Amino acid sequence: xxxxxxxxxxxxxxxxxxxxRLELKRKCEQHRSAMNTDELNTNTEQLRSLGDKIDExxxxxxxxxxxxxPKGGVRNMRADINQENFRSSDHYRDxxxxxxxxxxxxxxxxxxMAFGKRAITDMNGLxxxxxxxxxxxxxxxxxxxxxxxxYGAIYAKVTKYNFNGDVTIPIGTAGTPxxxxxxxxxLTFTFTEVAINQQAVVATVSVKNLLMKNSIAGLExxxxxxxxxxxxxxxxxxxxxxxxxxxxxxxxVTAITAAPSAAETYDEVDWDLINDVQAAVESPYGDNGTxxxxxxxxxxxxxxxxxxxxxxxxxxxxxxxxxxxTLDGRPVxxxxxxxxxxxxxxDLDQYIVNETQExxxxxxxxxxxxxxxxxxxxxxxxxxxxLFAKTAFxxxxxxxx
Length: 401
Prior knowledge:
The chain is an alpha+beta fold. 35% of the residues lie in helices and 22% in strands. It has 11 helices and 16 strands. The strands form 4 sheets. It has a 7-stranded mixed sheet with strand order 7-16-12-8-11-10-9. Strand 10 (324-327) and strand 11 (330-334) form a beta hairpin.
């Protein structure tokens, strides 16, 4: 006897095949006059093949457990899907991507898609419009964020807030305590107003429509990889090198090299350099410092560094393919967005990002109509800047041969 899960999977496959057949029929009807005999024969054969696959599934479903979909075609999903869990359900995920494939929400998907209808489509008082009408499924969101973290390792470590739109955040800094006559100490804080504006960080991917018809799960994984990769690389570049004149991010390097420049140089990695770098970043920032550089810089310049007694300064942990490194006890992060042979050392908690919580996915079939492609766009609204950049970070470039 077929299980409920197996039957549900077959019904999902059938829905996808029926959608493919419907789209192919529409294509044939709209462009028949422009097709030659070979193209017409090919499309006819594809329609026949899709029909055969649907018939095979119908035959398998003959003895399957009864579907909960009523005769009208609208499934009552409220028994197992609610406002708290809809985003993690396969029903919502499949309906979300089906709506992009067909350019509209099918009647049978109306109920589950209603859970994800976005209440806020404007993120910044009419100055930044988000665009997407429905929330991104949780599985897609998790995959994209994992890829962003992989390609934006520094970005993954900074301090993030999730306010909508442009904000001014008061950041407190501890001052010198006041000694009272009764023997108590009064702590004093100085607050710095940090204004952070947001911009759309966008990744655009052009996908052949034929690929979209193959598998929703496959399409989801592909889009998550491509969108996450481009957003991760872009946002990391903004964080390291961004300028407020060209983006809403002030880069760490930009802040340090601004006049009067606090950038330093080195020609050899030795025990003296390691000490000088860490001494330049005072507590508490230096106590929480991270070394940041390209992988090639680390292995060519830092990997063999030793202390005054000749003992290695680099400690490796983890297995093959997942190794992590510390340099004189502080972690090392690799980033391709840092210049070759340069490095940053500092406290990543002191870089503040305001990132709108919801990642957005949009699709536009009209842009690639002639090439039978759909343009997918993923974007996140964010902005950021380092606090006390020349106190919490140092930046060195290489002058040796």
